[in-house]
Amino acid sequence: MKPNLEKRSLYSFTVEELRDYFKENGLSKFVADQIYDWVYKKSVFEPENWSNISNKVKTFLNENLLLTLPKIVWDGHSVDGTRKFLVAMSDGKTVETVAIPAKNDRLTLCVSSQVGCAIGCTFCHTGTMGLTRHLDSSEIVGQFLTVTRFLKEKVGESERLTNIVYMGQGEPLHNFEHVKKATQIFMEDKGLMLGQRKITLSTSGLVPQIEKLNDFPPVNVAISLHAAHNNIRSELMPINKAFDLERLLKAIRTINLKAHRWITYEYILIANYNDRPEDIEALGELLDKKDSKINLIPFNEYPDSNFKRPSDERIKWFQDQLMKRGLITTVRTTKGADILAACGQLKSEMEDKLNLWD
Ligand code: SF4
Questions:
Q1: Rounded-to-integer distance, Cα 60 and Cα 103, Å
Q2: Rounded to 5 degrees, what angle do the CA atoms 300, 306, 309 make?
């Protein structure tokens, strides 16, 4: 399930790796810092425009590394400012990437970590597709860079990506090493310099990988909880049959919270299903009030989905009840509903129209 890359991509190197690579090939290791500066700080991706890089290095790069970025094959702009992209990798496989604006000029890129997903959550459109393959670290970094280039060329300085969430297609911890490497590249001081608070890793609850999180950069962690009862969670997320709530919470307690600060619990709120008084009681008993935050996500309906979004009054009531029990609770507003924002929906609808496999 490896990507079909004949050459290693330039965007899969940390600075240190790139320095070593140049040194091993008889070139100055300081060129690595200059290239990082062009790509990640100046967002200049064409080697012919790298004025302080010699022709000898440019020829070496062209012959030995893949310099192309994933290609945006479709983009949509919502009335609320959300931009959605369908991004094709070098083997033609596509993933969704979404840029979501927020207060204080924040622009968060929701990146995908896999083509499809093996977890099979029943509320998720991507979950119906199964896993095609993992993304390489350069393909994860590449989503950020190709959207950066799009914004620079088509929109201008008014929109710059500031944050990253691993909440696109795929289970990031199922692709642990590539997501870890991409995160290290996002955080490089010589490059994008994204702070650990600007990156959020979201997981469906892969317990063995959660237990390895102290070996991952100390970014924000979000757990897709979605239910506080095992029977409901198993219906929504088959992974709960392998790792139930007790095992999940035990694994979460191994995370060094001094580094990660707190855990955000994502909770998709579904009408007449997990929005009942007994769900509020169970959440209050399950979660530790001092280091937990709950993020309620009203269900985003898609064609043929079995679930419904609760009313605004019900959502507000659910939030208030949790707050009364001392749990910090926010409600995520639905973004980009007019541009097929449900996870995986765009990919399914657009691939046929774009004839991507011709
Ligand atoms: S919600 Fe996330 S983990 Fe679950 S099937 Fe969809 S992409 Fe996979």
A1: 44
A2: 35
**Do 200 and 236 form a contact (C-beta atoms < 8 A)?**
no
CATH pick for 71-354 out of 3.20.20.70, 3.20.20.105, 3.60.10.10, 3.40.50.300: 3.20.20.70
Known catalytic membership, residue 159 = no
Mean pLDDT along residues 26-48: 96
Q: What pLDDT does 157 receive?
A: 82
Ligand 1 centroid – CA 240 distance (Å): 13
Report residue 335's pLDDT band, with 50, 70 and 90 as the boundaries.
low
Q: What is the dihedral of CA 18, 174, 76, 79, to 10 degrees?
A: -110
Could you state, in order of their start, the residue ranges of all structural domains in the chain?
Answer: 8-66, 71-354
Question: Reduced to 3 states, what is the DSSP secondary structure of residue 68?
Answer: coil
Six-digit token pair at 334? 């639905």
> Among 111, 123, 126, which residue has the most ligand 1 atoms within 8 Å of its CB, making it the best to mutate?
126
**How confident is the model over 142-189, as pLDDT tens digits?**
999 999 999 999 998 889 999 999 999 999 999 999 999 999 999 999
CA of 171 to the centre of ligand 1 (A): 6
Kindly report the pTM of this predicted structure: 0.91
Write the single-letter amino acid at 65. L
Residue partners of 46: CB distance under 8 A and separation at least 6? none
The confidence score (pLDDT) of residue 125 equals 79
CB 218 within 8 A of CB 196: yes
Q: What is the CATH number of domain 8-66?
A: 1.10.150.530
Query: Which one of the listed residues 63, 235, 343, 351 is annotated catalytic?
Result: 343
Asked whether this chain's domains 8-66 and 71-354 adopt the same fold, the reply is no
CB of 127 within 6 A of ligand 1: the answer is: yes
Q: What is the pLDDT of residues 50-89, one digit of tens each?
A: 999 999 999 999 999 999 999 999 999 989 899 999 999 9
CA distance 123 to 237: 8
pLDDT higher than threshold 50 for residue 353: no
User: For 108-131, what is the mean pLDDT?
Assistant: 90
User: How distant, in Å, are the alpha carbons of 234, 287, 306, 315, 319 from that of 227?
Assistant: 9, 12, 17, 15, 15
